[in-house]
Amino acid sequence: MSFGIARWRTAFFASIRPNKMEKILLRNIDVPDFHRLATYESAGGYRSWHWVVENMKPAELIDEVKASGLRGRGGAGFPTGMKWSFVPKDSPKPKYLVCNADESEPGTFKDRLLMERDPHAVLEGTLIAAYAIQSHTAFIYVRGELAFGTTRLEQAVAETYQAGLIGKNIFGSGYDLDVIVHRGAGAYICGEETALLSSLEGSRGWPKVKPPFPATHGLFGCPTVVNNVETLAALPWILERGAPAYAALGTEKSKGTKLFSVSGHIAKPGVYELEMGYPFKKFLEEDCGGVPNGKKLKGVIPGGGSMPVLRPEEIEKVNLDYESVQAAGSLLGSGGVIVMDETTCMVRAAWNIARFYAHESCGQCSPCREGCHWMEKIFHRIEHGAGDPADLDLILNISGNIMGNTICPFGDAAAMPAAAFVKKFRDEFDAHIAEKRCTLRVE
Amino acid sequence: MDPVKITIDGKEVITTKGKTVIQVADELGVPIPRYCYHPKLSIAGNCRMCLVEIEKMPKLQIACNTQVADGMNVLTQSPKVLAVRKAVLEFLLINHPVDCPICDQAGECWLQDYYMQHDLQASRFEVGKVHDRKKTIFGPNIVFDGERCIKCTRCVRFCQEITKTNELTVVNRSDHSTIALFDDSVLDNPLSANVVDICPVGALTDRDFRFKVRVWYLQKTPSICPGCSTGCNISVETYQNHIARFKPRVNEAVNSHWLCDEGRYSFHDLAGGERLTTPLIRQEGGLVAATWEQAFQAVYSGLKGSSSLAAILSGRNTNEEAYLFAKLMKKLRADAMLEVFYQERELNEVEKILVSPDRSPNFRGARDMGVGSSDGFDGLLRRLLSGDFAAAFIVGEDLTKAAESETVRAALQKLSFLVVQDTRVTETSKLAHVVLPAMHFGEKEGTYTNRKGRLQKLNAALIAPEGALPDSEIFAQLLELAGEQNGYGTPEQIFAALAREIPAYNKLTYDSIGAQGIELDSGGGGAS
Lengths: 443, 528
Prior knowledge:
Chain A is an alpha/beta fold.
């Protein structure tokens, strides 16, 4: 850490200790025209970028982000600074920074909001991360369907080029950086970092076999870091306020704030920013207004469609941080909270999710390619009255056979929710099979 | 190289850093089932069949992509590993049509084999199977069955990495993924049929071999491809005394795992045409059947009395035959001009991977045996065509195809005496004064020396038709008639004689050749 940055921080913010309500990622989300460079700069935007380029060495930057405790917000929660530090410094190859804006996890729409409303924060974070690994070309890989977000990012990139914030010899430092916004063709798997890289290379969006890892053999075989939009968007604030300010938020292992996309049977759906460790139940009932229409909660998925569903009694003491959700038997993932009330047919919900994975499996490795559709077909027949009592154990067995045996985490993402629905709502599945029809639908 | 000590199933082994678990297991002889892994292709890691347990690693690891590390303890037979093999096989089979009764691969199918070894459970898949194309023509030699395909991508990688012709790709997603040709492409590169060999299942089958014979009826004889002087190691696979197919045998010193399409299908040439089964002697009105004694006598006196002699040996004749041929011709006329048939052609980039520019698999060996002159084959042919010779002895080649056919015909007609020794009637044999019925490469044993100087062994895969004799026996009999009491018998005995006489072969024995051949200038060879 440098003394320089500490002095600068002292001058502006040192006296401010953020309270629980202070927002980091969504602080400017409602400001009109915030996607414009002028508006962004008038709120202090690109000050961190200036500071980083003019005053910091890449190693100091990496240490600063390590100290902040920032972890990847794409779902895996891997420490960001550590990920950067895996990039070999002495490699003669070019290095690449890729912003993963291929947000496609079911029930997740936080990155989209940032791209559309605060694209410069995403871009500034991308620049800072690129500088940390001394990349001279950064890519922003945007999910194909997010056309508006792509436009906003492209505008932001054009504005920063014009303003001399990126390009050749930035701020006279000798550091060059180009940013390329790339719109994917719309495949869930391209959010997996190595599939994203394959797609960016112009190949079929297939995950790559690891090792080697992207840090050494990523895009075009060169050292590469892939960071999620939300992760990157937190960087300007962290650099502005300093690592300790960020690390002061959250829990011991889950630092800072996190965005949650709330959808389903909930009074106030939307994107929320919470300090890590916020009580799940309180969040749903107070912040989100609870389950509407006097209905009871039946189940909630805390981290996007890939994560195991939780029953109401399981979330009683859960806090929204990586460790607490994991202890409850699910994962924080992308923070896509899907709420289901008592009218939800859990068999149909499981089938819906299974159908998504059966459709999106890239087809590369055997367990996922064959297993996802097999599970989907079984869920389908249970929901449609043709289930067999042995089907439930079969699903658990299939999902167990996929788990951990695939090239990429997609297999786990398909297997975990399937098993969780069957285990946690077994009585409902049994009823479907026994009565040979959906027991919740009003005929 | 850093030595690394690892344990596989309790067996400790010292190996080198950089190797993968599957490579070390293969060296040790520990069986690890695999589909997508092929030693000559990049690692795809997609079939998940080679998952093994490695102590201290939380998940099972694919042996094909896991590099060895010091102290690594690999388990290939643990309950977890056996369970995952069963699971992966089940996944691979759920959408497989199990149409083994009509599948050409049955009997040499890795799904069948591994199912028997690792799965052996009844199907639990009671929902509809995914259907795909059953007989898509990929190219002149290849037909694709999408339902049997396990998407291991060996064929795709072969076309990307070995031939670099990129005809194939994977299309669609999930369990609808399938292999397809790129638009407007045809899988017709000169090595295309190798994809059939590396396909572990019945997805890619050979249009030539398809539906001809069940593989378990095939008799397999290790031999050498007679297509060119690369000398690819092959297995000659026969059924009821007919060649059903050639398959490559792995030999890293020669052809690795591959065989070119031209060589692979060259056996059809052997079977074509009208087979010669009796010696023929020209009488008024044409060639008339004769006994071997009459034929030998006619050849001996015809050649002995000629004023000049051109002797052309086929590039497919063995070293043993070439050795006796050279001896015989020189005995008949000391100034006989000997050559082995040799013509070059242009090769494209893909052919250059494997193919040599000639069609004379043993031209080098024949020259070692003394069948050769300073003018080369082209020089001899030119002289023959310009009428420099009174007599000629041509073995196993139809010269009318070596140059403009009318010119050759006219030149051969002018000869006072022409002996043709071949397996079947050719345009050349029709012009002969004496025709001697011989055996082709599949019917006899002997040795070839390839372009690079590797001595390799042919084995008889077929029984020759009655009436035909091995070339070596014909030469030996004529030698006897010419007064050389030699007692040459089997190819092994002839080889022993030539090894004594030819310096480069001095230290070699017939037995030392083995299934993989031996370099002439290796430890066993006496060549300079």
